[in-house]
Write a structure and sequence with these properties.
The chain is α/β, with parallel strands linked by helices and 451 residues long. It has 19 helices and 13 strands. The strands form 2 sheets. It has an 8-stranded mixed barrel, surrounded by 4 helices. A 5-stranded mixed sheet has the order 2-3-1-4-5, with helices on both faces.
Length: 451
Amino acid sequence: MTVNPTAIATGTDSLTGLAGYSSSQVELAAAVEHANACGEALSLAMIDVDRLKIFNDCFGKPHGDLVLRQLADALANAADGWMAFRTGGDSFAVLVPGRGEDDAKQALAERLDRACQAEPSVSFTSGIATHVPGDGDDPSVLWERASASLSESKRSGRGQIVIYSDVAKFVTVVTPSKVKALRSLLAEPRLEIAFQPIWDLGNECLLGMEALARPWSGYGFEGPAEMFVIAEKIGRAHELDAMCVSATLSRARELPPGAQLFLNVNPQSLVHDTVTPEFLLAGIEPTGLEPSQIVLEVTEQSDARLDVVVDRANRFVDHGFRLALDDVGAGNAGLAMLCEMPVSYIKLDQSVISQLLTSIQARAVLISIALFAFRVDAHLIAEGIETPEILEFVRNAHHLDIMRDPPITGAQGYLLGKPSVDISRTPLTVNDALPAPPPPVAGPDSIATAA
C-alpha cells in the first residue's frame, strides 16, 4: 500500500487508522490547556521506527506495513486516555495525560515491547517530554522538547527512550517566542560586546582580547549561546555573525595597545560570504588596526561543507588576517581543518584542559596537538583555565617531553579574567590578572604569640 504523506499530515492515515500531524497539533494545544486547568502533568512521546526503509528493502513493504500497524495498535490503546498520531512515514507521536516523564517512559516501553513481539528484528527510538502546570500555555514548547529528546536518542545509538530532563542542558529548544525574539534582535539590534583577555605565557603579557556578544536581557534568551544556536537552526547565523562583528569593530579603538582582536566567526558566515576579507578591511580602516591584529576564530564544530569553509578561510590569510581553530578536542572535524587551514593559533577546548590533572587521555590529546602545533609553527592556547592547579600544570607542561618549551604558549579562562564590557582596567601581566591569594589562617601558635 502506498501512503500519501500529505494524507498523513492533514487527515487520517488509511494504513494505521491514526490521525495525522495537523490533528496532533490541535489535540496537543487542547491537552496542554486541559493539563493547566486540572493541574496535572502531560507527557508527549515521539517514536521513530528505526531504519524502516532498510527493513522494507530486506523483507518487503507489506512486512513493513505490518510493523507500522502493530505499533499504531500498541500506541492507540485509549484505555489510559492515550492519543496516538502518525506524523510521518516512520514517525509517530502520542499524548500521555496524567503521567510524568519516568512513568510515561515505563508505560511506553511496555507498549513498544508488545509492538516488537511479532517482529523482534525491528526497533524503535523514542523521546519524551513532560508539560507541568506553570510551564506556560505554548504547546510548541512541549513539542520541541520531545523532538529534541528524540534527536538525542538517535544520536546516542537508537533503540532506546530518552527523556527531556536527562538532555535538557545539552539541547536548545526552538520555540516561536525565541524565533520572534531573534528576528527582533536582527531588525533592531541591542547587543553589548564583552572582551576576555588571552595571555602570552612566555612573555607573561597580554596577547589579545576575545570579543563575546551578549544580547539584551529583554529578548528572553537564556544566554548568548542560545541566541547563536537558534540563529543557526533557523538559517540566520550568518546575519547574526555579521552584526556581532560590526558591533565589535565599533569598539576596537578601546583595545590595549598591541593587543590582537579575536573574532568568533560561524562557518556559515564564511559559506554565505556575509563576513568577507573586504567586509573586515572596511570595518578596521577607521580603527587603525592592521589585518595582522585580527584573528578569526573558526570552530571545528560545524555542519558546513569543509572544503568551502577552508577555501573562504584561506582568503582571509591572503589579505593578512590570521586564523585560529577554536574548540579543538570537542568535535570531530578539527583534524581535517588543521590539515588544510594555515592557522596561527590552536585553541584547545576546556573539556580537554579541565581533565589534565586526572586523565591520561586528556594529556595524550594535549601532547598530540602540541606536537602538531610545533610542526606547523602555530601557537597553542589553553581555554577554560579556572583553577590555580590547572594553570600551574599548563605553565609547566614541558615535563610532558613535548618539543616546544613551553608547549602551551597562551592561556584564557575565568581565573585569568572574566569577560567584561569595560576593558580599560585590563591588567598588563598574567600575575596581575590572578586573584589575590586568601590571607593565611591563623593557627594556635600564632594566636599564642599574639597573646
